[in-house]
Specification:
45% of the residues lie in helices and 15% in strands. It is α+β, with helices and mostly antiparallel strands. The protein has a four-stranded antiparallel beta sheet with strand order 1-8-3-6. Strands 2-7-4-5 form a four-stranded antiparallel beta sheet, with no helix packed on it. Helix 8 links the parallel strand 12 and strand 13. The radius of gyration is 28 Å and the shape is globular.
Length: 638
């Protein structure tokens, strides 16, 4: 992390909601932040401006928020050091409804929404902080004093807006609720609820909600004798009913039920009680939705006792990925969610093996390599891993290694039962070549990097993408230290790795047509993994090692970081970052559709728009290839 990013991370950690994040998470955010200098009276955005792709934090100075009412500017709030504002892009589709202007010379940090979204979705405190602020339906500053922290809501009219929180899980709900008029007799309504096996009925007029009656109302108001069963239902209904739009997220629904102490929400056309009823959401709907919530899945993983239970959870992850892609949730966010769940499954598999075998005789680290090591494993592809145990006395080495080989074989066997196929090349911790002591692994990396050779090409490159799944962090750190020590002034290694990255067959012909398979079972199909994704993955790995970037393994995130580290070529890197997400989405959709690795795309099944989109995603690869050739002054190995 550069000095500026480190300074920004140090600053953010002192203020909510950033104080709910780890310094590592803040560091990732800080590297993508843009610093904006505002002169006095400079307008950052104003009423009706298109939404920005970032929200803002005041680093120094004062920024005012105001609206125009009755031809007069009304000051809503002052944002000082540590205040965040401009959060409308998180939640709303329409334009800004306030003006943000520097009251004095000010410095603000622009935090990209796309970078921050994953941390919101995975952190309840941050989520609730933002939701609570945005839900404040007021222009009165004093009404905001009850909020935790100093976040400034730039929302003026909440009730009529369409939520755009697509990165939160949406809800399935009852689209055929019982609807009765206000004059209906309670006894008749109770009978209808009983026959329909439903515990609520909406009271409405012209298909617009007036209130709701539930089993609780029947028990507390009728069964107790407070009211006779022959009265009109409007006498016992709860009113007004809380209304929401049909694309309300799980998080929003939870917040509203807690805020208003209700068990049901009425879904209407525009989210208000002045439009037609679309359905009703119950607490039970939230419980069902939470069954596929990432946080719930991880909790279930931690409690699982068998491969069978873990497989059921992994199947639900596939459903979650499918739903997320269908709802156009950013692929970068899906990577983060899937990675954490995959990681939890691997960790639990190791734990179950330890429970069977007994305590390990030495400390160790289980590292995922390859796609999971890059946090890019959306499909059930093959497993890749290594195991590193701490150095032990020579006379104990054999027994210790035997234990860890048994541990690895049990673990890889469990993962195979869950659905992760064994690596056909044997790149797994259960292979005695890839299960050894820290000193042996240090020698291995030294050999790969100091004397790269033709025979180690495919092996060495995959082992430079790793992520600890279980065990001692300091063991992984020791491997990283060796790697980054060896990259310094190592032109031979970069020459070898660079040429290896450029060996992949071109995805497009000279005439910009797709290069497809000429023979075999996938004849006339496009190999999106080998021809499109791998050149980007290999190029990103090569550049990450060259720039000595630690802790960022994901290909998309690597390219985004390169744009900061090497701004001269920022456009190329950013184009590659977007291309990687587009190509990953194509592969994932193909894999989910055919229940396979998604490697080969049948171009005939794509629409013309999708074929053009796929082709456009391949174009940045040529610029990346030329950049690599130039940067490393490559000469091909014979």
């Amino acid at each position: 992390m550069n000095t500026i990013a480190e300074h920004i991370a140090d600053f953010l950690k002192e203020y909510a909601p950033f104080n709910h994040l780890t310094f590592e998470e803040l560091s990732i955010i800080a590297t993508s932040i843009r610093v904006v200098n505002l002169e006095k009276n400079k307008v950052l955005f104003q009423v009706n401006d298109l939404l920005h792709d970032s929200f803002y934090v005041v680093a120094s100075g004062v920024v005012t928020l105001s609206v125009i009412a009755d031809a007069e500017e009304t000051l809503l709030n002052k944002c000082i050091e540590g205040d965040i504002f401009g959060i409308r892009p998180f939640f709303a589709k329409n334009n800004y409804m306030m003006t943000a202007k520097a009251r004095e010379e000010s410095l603000v940090y622009a935090i990209p929404i796309s970078t921050f979204r994953p941390f919101v979705a995975n952190n309840a405190e941050v989520l609730n902080y933002l939701l609570e602020s945005f839900a404040v339906n007021t222009r009165n500053y004093k009404d905001k004093e009850n909020l935790i922290g100093k976040l400034i809501s730039d929302n003026v009219f909440y009730s009529g807006e369409k939520s755009e929180m697509q990165y939160f899980q949406s809800l399935s709900y009852n689209t055929s609720p019982i609807k009765v008029n206000p004059n209906a007799i309670v006894q008749d309504v109770a009978q209808l609820m009983n026959e329909s096996l439903k515990n609520n009925a909406l009271v409405c007029n012209n298909n617009m909600p007036l209130g709701i009656v539930t089993d609780t109302d029947m028990r507390s108001k009728i069964a107790t004798g407070r009211f006779p069963i022959t009265i009109a239902v409007e006498r016992i209904m709860s009113s007004p009913v809380i209304t929401v739009m049909e694309n309300v997220s799980l998080a929003e629904a939870q917040l509203l039920m807690l805020k208003y102490n209700v068990t049901h929400l009425c879904v209407t056309q525009d989210g208000t009680d002045k439009s037609t009823i679309k359905g009703i959401i119950s607490e039970n709907d939230l419980i069902i939705a939470q069954a596929s919530n990432p946080g719930v899945l991880i909790k279930e993983i931690k409690r699982s006792q068998s491969a069978k239970e873990l497989k059921q959870i992994r199947d639900r992850l596939s459903d979650l990925i499918q739903t997320s892609i269908t709802k156009n949730i950013p692929v970068s966010h899906i990577f983060n969610i899937a990675s954490e769940i995959n990681l939890a499954i691997i960790k639990r598999s190791v734990e179950l093996s330890i429970l069977d075998l007994g305590s390990p005789p030495a400390r160790f680290a289980w590292l995922s390599i390859g796609s999971q090591g890059r946090k890019e494993q959306l499909l059930l592809t093959d497993q890749d891993s290594i195991l590193i145990f701490e150095d032990v006395a020579p006379d104990k080495y054999r027994d210790v290694k035997d234990y860890f080989l048994k541990l690895a074989k049990r673990t890889t066997g469990t993962l195979e039962k869950i659905g992760y196929e064994l690596c056909p090349n044997g790149h797994m911790a259960s292979n005695m070549l890839w299960c050894k002591s820290l000193t042996d692994w240090i020698k291995q990396y030294d050999n790969w990097m100091k004397d790269p050779g033709e025979n180690s090409a495919n092996i060495s490159s995959i082992f430079f993408d790793y992520e600890i799944a279980f065990g001692e962090q300091k063991i992984e750190d020791a491997i990283s230290d060796v790697v980054f020590k060896n990259v310094k002034n190592n032109s031979l290694f970069f020459d070898f790795l660079g040429n290896d990255a450029l060996r992949k067959n071109s995805p497009l012909s000279f005439f910009k047509n797709f290069n497809v398979e000429d023979e075999g079972p996938n004849k006339n199909k496009f190999d999106i993994k080998t021809r499109a994704l791998m050149p980007l993955i290999d190029g990103a790995r090569l550049l990450a090692l060259n720039f000595e970037i630690r802790g960022i393994n994901n290909t998309h995130q690597r390219f985004k970081q390169f744009a900061i580290t090497d701004p001269k070529h920022a456009e190329i890197y950013l184009n590659c970052a977007e291309a990687f997400l587009t190509l990953s989405k194509f592969r994932t959709l193909e894999g989910l559709k055919n229940d396979n690795s998604g490697e080969f795309i049948n171009l005939d099944e794509l629409t013309k728009i999708d074929r053009d989109k796929l082709k456009n995603a391949l174009l940045p690869m040529r610029e990346l290839e030329e950049l690599i050739k130039s940067k490393f002054q490559l000469t091909q190995f014979s």
